[in-house]
């Protein structure tokens, strides 16, 4: 079966760095996505990785290792507004998005 | 970026009634729209993929006759929950791709519609 694993919840301090991991087992691979979702709101796109390596976008970076079926989202200089759920999703060989359950990130002052 | 508008944001209805949720792409043509359902503290679950001018493709376990999807134009898709029951209470979200994103798969999400069935 297809499976996306990510931690249920993480806590970090304002100003710090946090890494949210995602491992996946899917039927084929056509890219991995990270979305941010604030409570009660729709998800917003953060990043897309299809090749191995690190993609940096401001305070957020996303890393992919296809051989390991592994990705992480790195958030630097954490702000209170970063408190949200972070969803990892993989596009399989049928171009269907398989969603992880999300990681709830709690930022403390 | 592209904007997707979803309406209504909140809806409360009585059991047995039908509810229609609209999803509009405001500044682009969306050949494909997706409908999701999200229960509290759970991930998005894809219900169906809607292509303009053709029948929607439903995911396994989603009742076609209960969740009617219409994608009559390149900017509008509707989801109708027919004969709603309390277990249908959920957060329904639509998303669309503008095609220009190609394989980057960037999806533009509507604001979501929270349905409560009494």
Please supply descriptive tags for the structure shown above.
heterodimer; A: 109 residues; six-stranded mixed beta sheet; B: 118 residues; mainly beta; seven-stranded mixed beta sheet; four-stranded antiparallel beta sheet; 0% helix; 50% strand; globular
What does this structure look like?
The complex is a heterodimer of chains A (109) and B (118). Chain A is globular, with a radius of gyration of 13 Å. The model of chain A has no long low-confidence stretch (mean pLDDT 92). Chain A has no helices and eleven strands. Helices cover 0% and strands 57% of the residues of chain A. Chain A is mainly β and 109 residues long. By secondary structure, chain B is mainly beta. Chain B has no helices and eleven strands. In chain B, strands 2, 4, 5, 6, 9, 10 and 11 form a seven-stranded mixed β-sheet that branches. The termini of chain B are far apart. The mean pLDDT of chain B is 87. The chains are: A mainly beta (109), B mainly beta (118). Chains A and B meet through strand 5 of A and strand 9 and strand 10 of B.
Proportion of strand residues of chain A: over 45%
Rg of chain A (C-alpha, Å): 13 Å
Main sheet characteristics of chain A? 6 strands, mixed
Series of H and E elements of chain A: EEEEEEEEEEE
Shape of chain A: globular
User: How much helicity do the residues of chain A have?
Assistant: under 10%
**Count of alpha/pi helices of chain A:** 0
Strand and helix order of chain B: EEEEEEEEEEE
**Unreliable runs of chain B, pLDDT <50, ≥5 residues?**
none
General form of chain B? globular
Please provide a brief summary of the model:
The complex is a heterodimer of chains A (109) and B (118). By secondary structure, chain A is mainly β.
């Amino acid at each position: 079966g297809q499976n996306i694993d990510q931690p249920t919840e993480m806590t970090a301090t304002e100003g710090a760095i946090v890494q949210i991991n995602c491992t996946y087992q899917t039927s084929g691979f056509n890219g991995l996505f990270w979305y941010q979702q604030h409570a009660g709101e729709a998800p917003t796109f953060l990043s897309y990785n299809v090749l191995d390596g690190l993609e940096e976008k401001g305070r957020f970076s996303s890393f992919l290792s296809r051989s390991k079926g592994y990705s992480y989202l790195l958030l630097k200089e954490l702000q209170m507004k970063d408190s949200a759920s972070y969803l990892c999703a993989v596009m399989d060989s049928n171009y269907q998005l398989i969603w992880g359950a999300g990681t709830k990130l709690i930022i403390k002052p | 970026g592209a904007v997707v508008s979803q309406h209504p944001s909140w809806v409360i209805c009585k059991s047995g009634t039908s509810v229609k949720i609209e999803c509009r792409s405001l500044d682009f043509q969306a050949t494909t729209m997706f409908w999701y359902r999200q229960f509290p503290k759970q991930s998005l679950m894809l219900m169906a993929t809607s292509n303009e001018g053709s029948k929607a493709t439903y995911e396994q376990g989603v009742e076609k006759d209960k969740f009617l999807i219409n994608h009559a134009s390149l900017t509008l898709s509707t989801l109708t929950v027919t004969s709603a029951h309390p277990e249908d209470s959920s957060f329904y979200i639509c998303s669309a791709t503008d095609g220009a994103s190609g394989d980057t798969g960037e999806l533009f999400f509507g604001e979501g519609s929270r349905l409560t069935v009494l």
